[in-house]
């Protein structure tokens, strides 16, 4: 377990925030325009934590061991009411989840919100890989 | 010999035998193993890592092998059954006979998306969704939600015209026939149909909806149609590609079948129209 200083943490957050600010427009374009710059994939999206339609959705960098093996959010995890939502980043920087697997969205937050709308109040089943 | 027919041309007796065989696989537990396998690959296949079932060149031969295995399981129940295919460019509304109560049943109700008619409705008590990503155990659909449209024949033809099977980097950002058919780029064919159906079909556990097999049987037929149009084109990549199944590499989970083994569908089945 690494210990990081507040300064380092703030630095990471600032870089992440700058990254998402730069990446979000490109990623949003990428949903509709396949030729949009793949550079969006290089930046990490910012963490988020909010209540959306009555559900607590959180997203942020994940560190090995805190989650089940085998998910491929590129070191980024999303939770809905504490249960992990399997998410995946596409090569063009867009995101999908196991709930909306065939429709890329611009950010992990958009993926989490789409999952909440789709769930209509139902609980997520804990992530399993066979 | 197995002949895969357009679902719109099935007789009432053929529909009933297909449905009954699917229900028997559900009852004896085999059906859910297919759902589990599919979801494991959906979650495991990534653009930057190992990828076999999806977002990669082997999307087409992997699903061809997967469908053959499912069809063989159906035929172990009833040897007369073959997988039908759904040409969603022709039968493109929720009013299609595909969605009638004597076949797959219709769209879900507004409140919770629950399919309320047909043999796969929860109330018929023969189709509980057990391999699932949320707490609901009933089949859900939202056909054409939000005014979404299925792909047109013209859109399919633009993809069939692409002469290169697949291109580096062999993933969801590739040019070429495979990725445009899969739908991560361009007009979006296969992915869009999953989204149009909605419910479990939009998730990693999409085989929970029996329409999964009819959708993929048509995607598989489009691969055969593409081969007929481009006899000088073949599967790519040929060899030596990290994380990707080359022509003569074996595919998980079977480990005894290669894309090369899957190129000629006529060893396993034919279609009701010339490919």
UniProtKB/TrEMBL annotation, chain A:
Belongs to the melC1 family. Keywords: Copper, Signal. GO terms for molecular function: copper ion binding. This is Tyrosinase. The lineage of its organism: Bacteria, Bacillati, Actinomycetota, Actinomycetes, Kitasatosporales. GO terms for biological process: melanin biosynthetic process. Residues 1-23 form the signal peptide. NCBIfam families: TyroCdyMelC1. Pfam families: MelC1. It comes from the Bacteria. InterPro entries: GriE/MELC1_sf, MelC1, TAT_signal. It comes from Streptomyces purpureus.
